Amino acid sequence: MREEVAFRLNGHDVAVEVDVHRTLLDVLRDVLGEMGTKEGCGEGECGACTVLVDDAAVVSCLYPVCEADGTSVTTVEGLFEPGGELSPVQTAYLEFGGTQCGFCTPGMIMASVALLAENPDPSEEEIRYALTGNLCRCTGYVQIVESVRAAAELMMERPA
Amino acid sequence: MSKYRHVGTEAQRPEGADKLAGTARYIHDITVAGMLHGAIKFSEHAHARIVHIDTSRARALSGVRSVITADDVPEVRYGFMRDNLVLKKGKVRQFRDEVAAVAAIDPDIAREAVDLIEVEYEPLPSVFTPEEALAEGAVLIHETDAAGRPRTSNVVPLPCRHASGDLDAAKERTAHVVEGTYTVPRIQQAALGTSGCIAEFDRNGNLTITTKTQIPFLAQRDFNSILAALGLEGRNVRVVVPAVGGAFGTGLDTHAYEYISILLAWTTGKPVRILYDREQEFAYLSPRQSASMFIRQGCDAEGRFTFREVDVVQDNGAYTSWGATYPNVMLVAATSLYRVPAVRFDSRIVYTNNTYCQAMRGYGNPEITWPIESSLDDLAAAAGIDPYEMRLLNSNQPGDVTPMGLKLATCGLTECLDRTAARIDWKEARGPERRTARGVGMASLINVGGGGKIYASDGSGIILKLDDFGHVNVAYGGVEMGQGLHSALTLMVAEALGVEPENVHINETDTATSPWDVGTHASRGAFMAGNAAVMACEKLRARIFEHAEKVYPAEVERNLARLRDRGEDVSPAGFDYTSVTRDRFDLQGGRLFVVDAPDEPWLQIDLGRFLRAVHFTKEGGVGTIFTEEAFYEPPTELPDWDRGIGNMSASYTFGVQGVEVEVDVDTGEVRILRLVAVTDVGRVLSPQALRGQMYGGIAQGVGYALYEEIKTEEGRILNAGFTDYKMPSAADLDFPIELEFVETDDPYGPFGAKGAGEPGIVATAPAVGNAIFDAIGVRILDLPITPEKIIRALREKETAVAGAGGG
Fold first, then answer.
1. What separation in angstroms does the CA of B731 have from each of A135, A146, B781?
2. Residues B244, B483: contact at Cβ < 8 Å?
3. Per-residue model confidence as pLDDT tens digits over B695-711
4. Mean pLDDT value of segment A141-154
5. Degrees (nearest 5) of the Cα angle B264, B269, B274?
6. Which CATH superfamily is B31-124+195-275 part of?
7. Which of B805, B807, B775, B806 is nearest to B793 (CA)?
8. Domain A2-79 superfamily per CATH
9. Cβ of A154: how many Cβ atoms within 10 Å?
10. Domain boundaries, chain B
11. Distance CA B534, CA B620 (A)
């Protein structure tokens, strides 16, 4: 069954007619061509596909696209202005080595953004707990945790 | 202060911003106009005769463009021993065998078509352990070898052995001996980006394959064979490597799915992409090899090693990958970790009906270091010596030539041991004040740090091309897969040439434009690239300075004219800029200047301006371009594997990890309280990237030590996904990891650096095992060290103690 689904994507209105059984991840990548969001497992275990739906982090590989109707969806491409500077979280990941192969990174960034929106000054333990659903095979998470802490400091210094 | 401007500085990853913005392009993100989607039909048996394949329903499905089985396409052999067929003929030997494939207009149709293929099998007896496979009368997995000669056993004919010193005499001098059989499981490399490729032909029969590989040039050689089979011998194979979502060894071999994409592209005349999902990555790619290792080692009354004996049995699975050469690398630690006067090493690789295995980070070294370092602590206990003191006593030293013939130009093992012991508070943590069920352990490592020669060439080429604007384009055949090769290479080119890192650009790896490289493995990427870069930069600088003699005076005059136009009074008196000779020039930070007056702005020429002057002025020699190549072949030897002798690496990386643990004796749960890793890396090139390699390797080491194992039942993988395969999460690694680096300035390394991609994973498991032994007095021989194994061992110990007490 096909249905029209309309939502805001990174600040722009989009409307697509899609099979209602498709996931938000599929529609983002295969229909809308937003390739920043990655599929790491397709079963909600690795978090590589994490995006924000109305500011809440969801794993888009399990999220039915019809649920996104009427919402505002943010992906890693929506965190900065084209040609502008990267967001504080992305900047901190760059500076503190929070990315290696980069495949888990978009999801990790979105989970970090959601965490900092909820808890602007998280402890290391809170960061580790918040990122439990985002697997990374490269970094051992140390520089990711450092990046999130640095992003928190940066955002507290310079509130958006 | 460092003598380097760029090497060793806290630089950001050059490709990092694209990864963070979501704009890096992985194989999953690439589509080609007209592209079809491929899918593979895999075996449903561990060992069975293929009676009949019915593809009629698949072929009839709307949207299907091609269905192929072994009967439809030429036979293509591949694999390290050429013992594998791309599409299986006659029989299947493992659950992941490829029996048919489909190309369709979308991935869902391709998968549906695969489900419509019906294969009739006649099951055969199977063997799932090396013991079963070696038993008298065991079924032969391969009846013949690649050349068609009959085979008589399931042993893979890859001998690798070593014998040095007088073993009998050494045993006579021995005061204490320990022995044990240690095992390591199959584990998943589990890169977050799954495997995939796109194959396409042009109308002349030339192939381009964009693929997730670590060996673009060996892959090119491999794919030549498929072109030959298709009647396209001599046509070109171009291998392009997109952004790689982690590899950890999975890209060291060419895979059936790549050949199948090529076959489907040929049969359809369209580009064909095959992508694995996570379940397929687990079930149909190749995990790390499992192995069983017997070790016996002895020491004299003072604690000096007298001998070491090792027998390795490795479960190869049904076919042979490069991973079957693990024993070649195991030899390094088996013969050369510590000074051991007499060593015997033997290995057997055995075919089974398990999934065939391949390499992962460390390549045999985490495997062999597990028994060596675990048994060392047992030996120290038998001898009544502190295991740290015993390691110090036997530590390798710079200048040593080991029994394998390894030449240790530099060796910081002693310093690594001392610094680890100091950092982990060794004496106090093991002392009488300690808390119950807490303990510390350490383990050392030696790893190849200057390549690892197991192929005819272990070299790397590089091409540096300067454009008119002072940018340097670097064509290198190695692969950035997250490890930070580009971080290190950027800094080294900037340093060696004399430009700013932001003006260094590393090209996408592409066999059409990059010079030959054996592949990115064995911690060799930065070492090789750096050495090649230094050679090419020296040539470039020489040519720049040669041309500077001609254009420099006119450019200085332009500087002077410009300053005078601005009304500045510049007096060039006292410095003759008109006849500067090539040996007086220098280039730093993208500015050409004269060493005798380095600070005068009017004597400095921007590199881009200089290059344009050379292009466009008569004095410079019109038409000159600045491109230089270099090929670095390390001064190493391809070992004689039958004797296990040969200096296979130019440099050797040493390290020590120390771990403090607490064990819950009721649940068997192990909690790591802290971990210290001190590594002799020769020289730190990119601190951020190096720390990332160490932390990441250690995290994998913790997984290897405590959690990870591919579970199988009669050859079928039971935990093919992250739901059932436990990999460390951020919350699992909630302990401090402290890193230190020892800089021994290796004479063969670029800027003194040795390879450091693998060492992080090598010593973690034995350090954890030794800490558990220190904490609760039980020794687990089989990885991973699960709570069940600890509880069982504690119960056995209690029973033994009670038994002894009762007797």
1. 10, 14, 27
2. no
3. 999 999 999 999 999 99
4. 98
5. 35
6. Aldehyde oxidase/xanthine dehydrogenase, a/b hammerhead (3.90.1170.50)
7. B775
8. Beta-grasp domain (3.10.20.30)
9. 16
10. 31-124+195-275, 290-454+638-805, 459-632
11. 25
**Segment 400-419 of chain B within 8 Å of chain A by CB:** none
Cβ-based neighbour number of residue B456 at 10 Å: 8
Nearest alpha-carbon partner for B283 in B29, B46, B107: B46
Q: Token match 């332009």: residue?
A: B558
B31-124+195-275 and B459-632, same CATH topology: no
Instruction: Give the pLDDT score at B622.
Output: 56
Are the C-beta atoms of residues B226 and B76 closer than 8 Å to each other? yes
Residue A20 above 90 pLDDT?
no
pLDDT confidence band for A160 (50 / 70 / 90): low
Chain A from 34 to 73: CB within 8 A of any B CB = 34-43, 45-46, 48
Picking from A80, A97, A101, the nearest residue to B193 by CB comes out as A101
Q: State the Cα–Cα distance between residues B256 and B341, nearest whole angstrom.
A: 45
Rounded distance between C-alpha atoms, residue B177 and residue B13, angstroms: 49
- Give the CB-side neighbour count of residue B162, counting CA atoms within 13 A: 33
CATH 3.10.20.30 positions along chain A are: 2-79
Contact B353, B128 (CB under 8 A): yes
Cβ–Cβ gap B484/A102 under 8 Å: no
SS3 for A50? Answer: strand
Residue B23 contacts A, CB cutoff 8 Å = yes
Is the separation of the CB atoms in A88 and A151 below 8 Å?
yes
The parts of chain B modelled with pLDDT lower than 70 are 1, 573, 619-623, 805-807
Q: What is the pLDDT of residue B807?
A: 44
**Hey, which residues does B310 pair with through a beta bridge?**
B295, B345
CATH T-level fold of B459-632: Aldehyde Oxidoreductase; domain 4 (3.30.365)
User: Is pLDDT of A159 > 80?
Assistant: no
Query: In chain B, how many H helices and how many E strands?
Result: 20, 31
* CA distances for B488 relative to B350, B504, B654, angstroms: 39, 11, 20
Is some CB atom of chain B closer than 8 A to the CB atom of A78?
A: no
**Closest Cα partner for B325 from B455, B217, B444, B431?**
B455
Q: Name the superfamily (CATH) of residues A88-157.
A: [2Fe-2S]-binding domain (1.10.150.120)
How far apart (Å, rounded) are the C-alpha atoms in residues B461 and B492? 15
Q: Is CATH 3.30.365.10 the right assignment for the domain spanning B290-454+638-805?
A: yes
Distance CA B252, CA B261 (A): 18
B741 residue type, one letter: F
Taking the C-alpha atoms of residue B785 and residue B254, their distance in angstroms, rounded to an integer, is 33
How many CA atoms within 13 Å lie on the side-chain side of B497?
Answer: 34
For chain A, where do the domains classified as CATH 1.10.150.120 start and end?
Answer: 88-157
| Range list of β-strands (E), A10-143 | 12-19, 50-53, 56-59, 72-74
Q: Looking at the complex, does the CB of residue A97 fall below 8 Å from at least one CB of chain B?
A: yes
User: How far B191 CA sits from the closest chain A CA (Å)?
Assistant: 6
Q: Closest to A46 (Cβ–Cβ): which among B192, B688, B734?
A: B192
Closest of A87, A102, A86 to residue B486, by C-alpha? A102
- A-chain CB neighbours of B728 within 8 Å are 140
